[in-house]
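ok trying this again, last paste got cut off
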Amino acid sequence: MNRFEQTVLLKHAGGITAQWLNSFSNQVAICTYSPKDNGKYSLDYVSSPWTGINKHDTDDSSQWELTIIPGYEKEREQIASEAMLILTCLNASVGGERALQSIWNAPTIGFDWPEHHEESGE
């Protein structure tokens, strides 16, 4: 299947990192979320195979531009949608933890909830 699958959601001292893997093409997408002073999170970084740098035939990095590589429209939509759902859950006033558990099916590390919510009987 040519699709990105959730691989891990990791809570760490610097924030939260979500990772997806396309095992067909061996490509990874990663999003990082940083905690803010108000107790909320921001989506700060997305790395994926559809992002790149256009160097414009120069070694002057100040002239380089971030570019979106065409051909990954479905994958980009999938990761962007899931990344925004994660952000919405992280910033929810009520029920965010449970909502996040319902949309994230891969392992979670560093969170204060059971690894597999459904199996815990809750």
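PB: full thing came through this time. The chain has a mean pLDDT of 90.
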